[in-house]
Amino acid sequence: MSETVSFKMDTRMMWRAIDEHHRTFRRSYEHLFMVAAKGVAAKAVRLTPPFKWQRNSGNTESDRNARQRGISSVEVGILKLFTTDASVALKNGLAQKPTKTIIQANSAMSLMASYHKEKRNPSGRVPKSHKPTKVVTRQALKKYLSTTKKRVGYLASGWVQGAQTVQASVPSWVKKHAGPGSAVLQVTATRLYFRMTNAVGFPTKDMLMASRIPVAVRLQAAAMLRQIVFKTKKKVAL
C-alpha cells in the first residue's frame, strides 16, 4: 500500500453547476451533491490506466476498448523481456549461450515478476527499446502472460470503494480486483462531504492522480452545466 498523498482541487466550477441546477430545477443540494459525487467517482475510474482520455475533448475510451488495450500493452511489455528462443536472447545481448532454460516453470512466476518489476520505467511500463534477454519455457511464458493479463484494471480498482459508496458504475473487470481504497460520505442539511482514496501501490500513481482527478471534477461539472442548457432549451421548445 502506498503512502496517501493529499492535494487541493479547485471545485468552484462544480459548486457553480450545483447552484445553477438548484436555482433552475429546484432540486435539493443533497440530491445534486450525490449526482456530482457519483459522476466524479465514475470518471475517476475511467481516467485511471488502462483507460485513456483525450485532453481536448475530455472523452474517455469505452470500457471494452480500455480492457483490451490494457491486455495488449501487458503482453507487449512482457515479450520485450522474455523469450522461449535462446538464439533470440543471444542476439539481444545474453552473455553466453545457456546450457538449459534459464527460468524453469516451477520457479518462473516469482522470478519473472521480480524481473518485470525491475525493468519497468517510472510510469510502470517496459521501455520501448528493451529487447528480450531472459529465456523461459513456453509453459512459464504462457502462464505468466495469463496471470499478468488478469491483473489489468487493478490500479483503477482502488476507486471501487468510493464508487460503490455513491452507487457509481464500475466495469466488472475492474471491480473484481477489489484494490485497497476507502471512502467517506456525509450528506446532511449542514454538511456535504465526499472523499475517496485509492491506496493501490503503483509507480507515479500519486502524480497521475493529482493530474487526473481534478479533470474528473471538471468533466462532471461541465456535464451538469450542459445538462442545464439542454433541459432549458427542451422546455422552451415544448
Structure explained in plain terms:
The chain is mainly α and 238 residues long. It has two domains: 12-49 and 153-232, no CATH class; 65-149, no CATH class. Helix content is 51%, strand content 8%. The protein is elongated.
Count of discrete domains: 2
pLDDT averaged over residues: 84
How is the biggest beta sheet arranged? 2 strands, parallel
Decide which structural class fits the backbone: mainly alpha
Q: Strand order within the widest sheet?
A: 1-2
The arrangement of helices and strands along the chain is HHHEHHEHHHEEH
Name the overall outline.
Answer: elongated
Q: Which band does the percent of strand residues land in?
A: 5-15%
Tags for this model:
238 residues; mainly alpha; 2 domains; two-stranded parallel sheet; two-stranded antiparallel ribbon; 8% strand; elongated
Kindly summarize this structure in a few lines.
The chain is mainly α and 238 residues long. It is built from nine helices and four strands; from the N terminus they run αααβααβαααββα.
